[in-house]
Amino acid sequence: MPPAPGDREARRDDVSRAVWQVLADKGFGGLTLRAVAAAMGVSTGMLMHYFPTKRALIAHALDLLEKRTAERPRRDRPADGLATVRAMLLDILPLTEGDTARNRIWVSSWDLALADDGLATDQADRYTRLRSTLRPHFEAARGLGEVPAAADPEQLAATAVAFTHGLVVQALFDPDRFPEDVQIAMVDDFLASITPPRPARR
């Protein structure tokens, strides 16, 4: 018998916690109805009242991951322009244990998203939203003269996201080569590379 509406919402919270536990332990490769049911101590049949297919479970897990990512602690936004861009890029990187675990889960989801048109579209939308959060700060940086006047804020945002996520992957696979201080220095070097040189003093 399906759960009552009130019980369903309460139980869904339990499911979300179990999904997160499985993701943290095994990544998306280990996310199955059986694994989540075992983490909850219930039958697979009971779990299927909430997620009748593995795809439904995966879609929920991606939504949960996005929610957890949005709710994570973030650095202060110190000033308009590149200072805020820097803080936002550092928030993405695996600089802490929690950020490393979250990034591992995201990377483990990519194969699944690439194999499913709907999930791929959702992931592309997430990147669009990320770029859109960076763009106003690049616009401010352009107004402040921190980037060239001819620079396209949309392209700068896309380049920043591509650079940062490339660094994420390298840091996850080779943490000894890319420890925290190296990652931060690389972000600073990247931002310096898009800053126009100052006129020489006479």
Can you put this structure into words, describing what you see?
- This protein is mostly helical and 202 residues long.
- The chain contains 9 helices and no strands.
- Residues 1-6 have low confidence and may be disordered.
Provide tags for this entry.
202 residues, single chain, 9 helices, mainly alpha
Mean pLDDT: 88
Query: Using DSSP, what is the number of strands?
Result: 0
Based on the structure, what is the oligomeric state of the protein chains? single chain
The helix count comes to 9
Sketch the topology as an H/E string, one letter per element.
HHHHHHHHH
What spatial form do the alpha-carbon principal axes imply? Answer: elongated
**How large a portion of the residues is in β-strands, by DSSP E?**
under 5%
End-to-end separation = 83 Å
Cα Rg: 20 Å
Fraction in helix: over 70%
Structural class by SSE content: mainly alpha
Unreliable runs:
1-6
Topology:
Elements: H1 5-26, H2 33-40, H3 44-47, H4 54-71, H5 82-92, H6 97-114, H7 117-143, H8 153-173, H9 180-193
Please give a quick description of this structure:
The protein has nine helices and no strands. It is mainly α and 202 residues long.
